[in-house]
Here is the input.
Amino acid sequence: MKALFAQNQLDKQRPLVTESVKRAVVNAARDSWEVYFSRLFPATGSVGTGVQLLAVSHTGIKLLQMIRGSREASGQLRVLRKYSFADILFVTIPSQNMLEFNLASEKVILFSARAHQVKTLVDDFILELKKDSDYVVAVRNFLPEDPSLLAFHKGDIIHLQPLEPPRMGYSAGCVVRKKVVYLEELQRRGPDFGWRFGTIHGRMGRFPSELVQPVAAPDFLQLPAEPSRRLAAAVAASVACTAAAWEVGRRREGSLTRSGSVDHGEDGLALPPCTMLEFAQKYFRDPRRKPQDGLRLKSKEGRESRTLEDMLCFTKTPLQESLIELSDSSLNKMATDMFLAVMRFMGDAPLKGQNELDVLCTLLQLCRDHEVMQDECYCQVVKQITNNTSTKQDSCQRGWRLLYIVAAYHGCSEVLQPHLLHFLQDVSQTPGLPFQGIAKACERNLQKTLCFGGRLELPSSMELRALLAGRTSKRQLFFLPGGLERHLKIKTCTVALDVVKEICAEMALTRPEAFEEYVIFLVTNQGQHVCPLSRCTYILDVASEMEQLDGGYMLWFRRVLWDRPLKFENELYVTMHYNQVLPDYLKGLFSSAPACRPSEQQLQQASKLASLQHRAKDHAYPPSVREVQEYVPAQLYHTMAGSAWLNLVSQHRQQTQALSPHQARAQFLGLLSASPMFGSSFFFVQSCSNLAVPAPSILAVNQNGLNFLSIETHELMVKFPLKEIQSTWTQRPTASSSYPYVEIVLGDVATQCTMQLQLEQPLAKCGLSAVSAAGPGAVSSGGCARGEPAQCQGEAAHTAPK
Here is the structure.
């Protein structure tokens, strides 16, 4: 740029005068200044990457970091990584604020609050590049015997060529559906026929258009001149073995063409949609091709005459290569080890010093470490339970139970998903077939895993023994406020949200908005440590982890949000809420202590609430002075003599005595709900970095914001509206730190300040997450933000104001 300015003698005193010079300056800036013509988005990457911004421009995307020097106050942008649009196959949003860039050889995961805007912008650029591109990417193998056809593998980049006759006076064509079609008569890249003509690695030929997808023109300075099987394998894995494949091939029609058979005429094989055989046709190895190592198998599967049907049926001999075509030799070796583990679990191969739990854990861990192998695992298990002819009597049954376990831990790609679900539904719904019940259970597990991510903790030996014996559920105790207990049936894939729904159903709550107001808490260390569970947390994962630690634990059910009005019809609903708010009321947290004598209105309300508490216990006799003292907050009770309080309470006895205990609790909740601090979560603040907040104090978190109350009088001293909260970070207590603390960023984007609070355990013992999850309309009694996972020790919990 400096050379261009010098060449044209440009400076502040000599403005640009010609359009050509202006155009040259703009082009130089666009080509040499990496982020100048980019749109910047706030983004973060994985831990340790340092990504702070994402830049999107006409050339591609760049991951940026702000570097602040000693001289520059504003800092400079440093490019950490950059990817051209030729490298990006497509972009997906697996979950809220999460971006997944599927590249030719890797995946890039970023997190941004503007994920949808980023995806839209990138998709627009890629779409424009594809429109003008003469390149396509192979989404399936095409290995014809006819040398005039172009052979390629999944992941290969093909350069389209114009369809020209081979010789003067001759025409190129073929017979399709008993009709001669001339290639040169077709529109170039036209969708009406399905044939393309292209070149790859110096070879030219025709190929079916259904086997490729448009792709941006590649940067050949970065591509090898010869075929790279590693690159092709990586692209093939993302196309055939991950959820990305559906995104690439969702517009694809027809089935796989093998060995040059590209005629879909009347004599072609017509398969029902979404069968496992259809999946095998598209993604399995060619059944007539020898294994990669050149060895010849002695079994039927190794002969030249074997078919795809053979590859989907039970075998008593180990595989020597994967079912799905994987070019990477290391993945192929994993596939053969995986199949041997499947055979050992089913009893068709000796354990050799291992037990069933060892074999199962090896299989599950292999799928967890190598996500690309999950589809292979499902295909192998389906193969072994299809037409099972094992000499072991329980081989097929154990295979189904293995499928049940795998479906609880790992999902499958969106490519395999419809085929696998069709297989399970076909077994469960076809009259007379065995294993209908477990097939339906496998389908439920798979659907749960695709929705919630799958189990994390490997099964214990006790759980595995129960599963092998056909027992797929256990009774788990859950505690509701006031010592209420619920023993619920927990299945392999029961998550916290399922428990919330079941208890809410008992309370006559059926709307999804109501489910968001309740949370399951894990309580350990004799009630000293309280952690809210994410709605996606598997209950048996929690139980398994706690049993390994050999520590006592409890699971609590609490209301954490108070957006919806109270209901008073259902008895369990009223009792649960009454028991939850009563301790806070008796501590005087819902009202401030009077400076001198309470007003008549305060006395009347406190005495009526005391009378309602007495009736809620189903007592027919008049309360004593000691009982009245237990019913009135201490700070209020000491303002008058006990006999005076007894007289006031007795005045309401005639009204309350006519009520049932349920009606008494309902009236108590109705009166108390008018208090300004009703629906709050209370915390004891040991210290605070903000000088405007006196410490120690009591923090009340509710829909109105963060309210700091005086310890002595419970009067409001300082208040921060929720709209001022930018983000929070919670550090839970550790062995070296007995007190948790919370960092809260307040203000707006321009002016921010950080406030650090050191907390004791919450007064209501309902966890620490209410502060870190605080957001408008998402306040919890020690719970997590609406629909968001609970934060674990030392993790950040960012909640942006709505």
User: Anything to note?
Assistant: The first strand starts at residue 39 and ends at 42.
